[in-house]
Design goal:
Helix content is about 15%, strand content about 40%. It has one domain: Cupredoxins -  blue copper proteins (Immunoglobulin-like, Sandwich). The longest helix has 23 residues. The chain contains 1 helix and 10 strands; from the N terminus they run αββββββββββ. It is mostly beta strands.
Length: about 170
């Protein structure tokens, strides 16, 4: 074979393998339908689960996020490799339109992302997800951020919550 042919074949193989790797790492379509999953609990979660949130108005210009299950402040996973962890706003004030910001669940001590990848807000705007790659054992701090911004209204409130996820061997 001539050198240009070998170079062309090598380039094609490299592109094909990069495309296959990208497809392998691409998350499944996420529409926010995570409510059929069981709620995450502190302990040995070994399946995908959802961390349920409640947003509470506090006066005219502030809000607060609460965990539906207060024990979800520290959620422990044991060998949960390549599984999705979901967050969902399941309760909010009547007439309110609280939603996750674009970076609504952000890990603060996993940079660059190794343990948690593929973070994305759901199409319904009240769901979020990250894939737990379980690359290392440790405790990971994250921040949940929601706002009352809508398609036509600028936000007047933004609130935060700072829970933890632990990966155990």
């Amino acid at each position: 074979m001539h050198a240009p042919h070998i170079l062309w074949i090598g380039l094609f193989a490299l592109c094909a393998s990069a495309g296959a790797q990208e497809k392998l790492n691409a998350p499944v379509q996420f529409d926010g339908a995570s409510t059929s999953l069981k709620p995450c609990q502190d302990g040995d979660n070994q399946t995908e689960c959802v961390i349920e949130l409640e947003v509470v108005d506090q006066g005219t210009d502030s809000c607060r996020i609460k965990l539906v299950d207060p024990a979800a402040d520290l959620v422990t996973f044991r060998r949960l490799a390549d599984k999705w962890v979901y967050w969902k706003i399941v309760r909010q004030p009547v007439g309110a339109a609280y939603r996750f910001t674009i970076d609504g669940v952000a890990f603060t001590n996993d940079w660059p992302p190794k343990n948690f990848t593929g973070g994305k807000r759901g199409n319904d705007l009240v769901s979020f997800r990250w894939k737990n790659r379980f690359r290392s054992v440790g405790v990971f701090k994250y921040t949940v951020t929601v706002t009352n911004e809508t398609e036509t209204e600028a936000p007047t409130r933004e609130c935060w919550l700072d829970p933890w996820i632990r990966n155990r061997a």
